[in-house]
Design brief:
By secondary structure, the chain is mainly α. It has 17 helices and no strands. Helices cover about 80% and strands about 0% of the residues. The longest helix has about 40 residues.
Length: about 425
């Protein structure tokens, strides 16, 4: 289990590295390089628009790869999704800027971002299911949390590389070629991930299925549509929080508050380190107290913290910004550390890869794709403290709280068998 969980963690870390490095570049440099005819705010919005395309592609990727995951197995999905995401990420680092090839530059960027999202849409379902379906029932929450640590590790890798380049290069060097280096690094990481995953074995739960769904998506839509919509709505707050902290706040801090790139990246990274390290602990609580209660607690905490978070961000003081980010990510991890076990348990095995992945990635469209764009627009028309962003995030948290309240509990419960002594006669 440790070898399997570690390989799943490494794979999700690599794929999310690819995804996050684009988000960081979108916040810092892609606007002026690929949309130079726009105003600074419009250029940032356009860059975040290409960022959002990756989220739109993720449900399509979950449908495509989920079909093969339910029909052919979880393991092949992991290899194919990693290849697609890695290749498209390296290609992003090779796209010439608008000044070199004109409008073809943002078009190429859009296409490659779509392919990135397509690959990542298949990654999460395969990695989580392979781990969850190998894990013993009483520790499923713990082992299934390993792939959930992957996004934090991927973000730290992406941000760490960006931070090192930002600190060591001049602004001109970073804009000219420095931002491309993290995209090229993705190629080496993808090769390492493929080597790690080459030794994985197929899920025993998948091998037990006698009657595989002919068209998994059709079955999910017909029999589980309500569950898919509820899970998508429930997960939207987690995406909204994470990308408000890691993507929107980075652009807001550097452009509106005048905080240096290095200081902003350091504050965000420190909060993500704490969040990632607490994931296994929350997963243990999930095995002990249940999936749904922790999700409800995380949503409630998020609803209460969004206004304090934007107020602390608006100070521009590194320590206060870190505390604001940390509170938001603690609410986030209380929900998302649980999902590796919770989502697969909500769906029957024959359509589990498609159902769980589609619900998970639709939540990304609702929360992740829209949040940087909406938050940037709201902050542009507000004062120094972006209260409109706080209100938006609070509203998303309350919406997700209602969706979680309508979902059932799935934690396996040990059944006690009473032994009755035989009675004479």
């Amino acid at each position: 289990m440790l070898r399997l969980a570690t390989a799943s963690l490494a794979g999700t870390a690599i794929e999310f590295y690819d995804f996050f490095v684009y988000g960081t570049a979108a916040a810092l440099v892609l606007g002026p390089l690929f949309f130079p005819t726009f105003s600074p705010v419009a250029g940032t919005l356009a860059a975040f628009g290409t960022f959002g395309v990756g989220f739109v592609a993720r449900p399509l990727g979950s449908i495509l790869f989920g079909h093969f995951g339910d029909r052919r197995g979880r393991r092949p999905v992991l290899v194919a999704s990693l290849l697609l995401t890695g290749a498209s990420t390296v290609a992003v680092g090779c796209v010439p800027s608008y000044g070199s090839i004109g409008v073809a530059a943002p078009v190429l960027l859009l296409v490659l971002r779509f392919l990135q999202g397509l690959g990542l849409g298949g990654e999460w379902g395969g990695a989580v299911l392979l781990t969850a379906e190998h894990a013993p029932a009483g520790r499923r929450g713990l082992w299934s949390s390993f792939p959930q640590i992957g996004p934090a590790v991927g973000f730290l890798l992406a941000t760490g590389v960006m931070l090192a380049l930002s600190a060591s290069l001049t602004d001109a060097q970073f804009a000219q070629w420095g931002w491309r280096v993290p995209f090229w690094v993705a190629g080496a990481l993808a090769l390492g991930g493929l080597w790690l995953r080459s030794s994985l074995v197929e899920s025993p739960r998948f091998l037990e299925i006698d009657d595989h769904a002919r068209v998994p998506l059709a079955e999910v839509v017909r029999e589980h549509w309500r569950l898919v919509l509820l899970t998508a709505g429930a997960l939207s707050v987690g995406y909204a929080i994470f990308y408000a902290v890691t993507t929107w706040s980075l652009a807001y801090g550097t452009e509106r508050l005048g905080v240096g790139r290095t200081e902003m990246l350091a504050c965000i990274m420190a909060a993500v380190v704490v969040k990632g390290s607490l994931t296994p602990l929350v997963a243990l609580l999930n095995d002990r107290y249940g999936r749904r209660p922790l999700c409800l607690l995380g949503c409630a905490a998020a609803a209460l913290w969004m206004f304090p978070m934007v107020a602390l961000l608006a100070t521009g003081a590194p320590l206060l910004m870190f505390l604001g980010f940390l509170g938001a990510l603690l609410a986030f991890v209380t929900m998302f550390a649980v999902l590796g076990a919770y989502l697969p348990e909500l769906y029957e095995p024959r359509v589990r890869c498609t159902g769980a992945a589609v619900g998970y990635n639709l939540g990304g469209v609702l929360g992740g794709a829209l949040t940087p764009i909406v938050a940037t627009a709201l902050a542009e028309h507000g004062g120094r403290v972006p209260w409109g962003v706080g209100a938006y995030l609070t509203g998303v948290a309350l919406f997700s709280l209602g969706c979680f309240a309508l979902l059932p509990e799935t934690r396996p419960v040990a059944v006690e068998v009473a032994v009755v002594e035989p009675v004479a006669g």
